[in-house]
Specification:
alpha+beta, five-stranded mixed beta sheet, two-stranded antiparallel ribbon, 6 helices, 38% helix, 13% strand, globular
């Protein structure tokens, strides 16, 4: 299963104030900025996530269906990237085989490369392309920083733990107060995005 951010200001080396995440309720999340951490606003209003989330911006936990959409985007992207390689190596007969694996190359292309890609995106950007599309990011549940390498590996392996009992660990996102799946709880991560402002009411002039 494959799987940014909002606007704000950051100052290198400053002392961070406790921030807040909002889901069904308000949950305090401490986000100390490490030395040299900056959060720069881009012209588009999105953040450049260099180390930690911005303490002056409100965030919300990303719910189940939004994350399903992000996962579908990632799955489709990975499918269209790996399909040409598999067809080139195994031909159309690849789809007719009843074997789980067609060989070492199949394992490498279908399992190892996607894992490396997802983990690399989490470490470098805090989000896969699918999560970027919904302006979401995976962060450390305690500090708000991007997940470390070991944490990202643990989160990816946690997908298998979440999937084995009929996908219960993935469905857990729908009922958890912080929208954490079991893989999030195992790795100590949450998925957040900038809290959207209330929608402006639409008014029209009434014709006599």
């Amino acid at each position: 299963m494959l799987a940014r951010p909002g606007a704000g200001r950051g100052t290198a080396g400053r002392t961070s104030r406790p921030g807040r995440l909002r889901g069904h309720g308000t949950h305090p999340v401490l986000r100390p900025a490490p030395p040299g951490a900056t959060v720069a606003a881009r012209p588009s209003g999105r953040l450049s996530w260099s180390a930690a989330v911005d303490d002056e911006t409100q965030y919300e936990y990303v719910g189940f269906w939004a994350r399903v959409g992000a996962a579908l985007i990632d799955t489709l992207l990975m499918f269209f990237l790996t399909l040409p390689l598999l067809l080139m190596l195994y031909g159309p007969e690849y789809w007719d085989s009843t074997s789980l694996f067609q060989g070492p190359a199949d394992i490498l292309i279908s399992y190892v490369l996607p894992a490396i890609a997802v983990i690399a995106f989490w470490v470098a950007r805090g989000a896969t392309p699918g999560k970027m599309a919904i302006s979401a990011q995976v962060v450390d549940a305690r500090t708000g920083n991007k997940p470390a390498l070991g944490q990202s590996i643990g989160r990816y392996l946690g997908y298998y733990v979440s999937t084995i009992p009929l996908g219960l660990g993935l469905l857990w996102v729908a009922i958890d107060p912080k929208k954490q799946g079991w893989h999030d709880k195992l790795a100590g991560t949450v998925v957040i995005r900038r809290k959207r402002p209330p929608a402006q009411p639409v008014r029209f002039e009434r014709q006599p």
